[in-house]
Amino acid sequence: MKIVLAEERAGENLPEQSFNQAVIAVGRNAVECEIVFENTQYPMVSRKHAELRHQGGKWFLLDLNSSYGTFV
Fold it and tell me: Which residues contact 57 (CB under 8 A, 6 or more apart)?
């Protein structure tokens, strides 16, 4: 299942990111994560913070015991 993520920052649309996998890792670790946050700008994001998972035809966002939690 394909998912396309769009980001807006300070009123500016950034390039979309497309993924064709069932699990997408989010965090500061560029080796383990597909969506990576800069450490100095986003210190509240854990190295491996959360995952987007496609399961049973639906997308889920799972917190991976991050220090600050995950909010939608």
Answer: 1
29 near 47, Cβ under 8 Å?
Answer: yes
Q: Which of 18, 20, 14, 15 is nearest to 1 (CA)?
A: 20
Q: ∠ CA 15-66-70 to the nearest 5 degrees?
A: 55
Nearest to 51 by CA among 31, 66, 41: 66
- Asked if pLDDT for residue 12 goes beyond 90, the answer is yes
Specify which residues 62 forms β-bridges with.
51
Instruction: List strand residue ranges (DSSP E) for 1-72, in order.
Output: 3-5, 8-9, 12-13, 17-19, 23-27, 35-36, 50-55, 58-63
| Distance of alpha carbon 33 from alpha carbon 57, whole angstroms | 22
Average pLDDT estimate for 12-29: 96
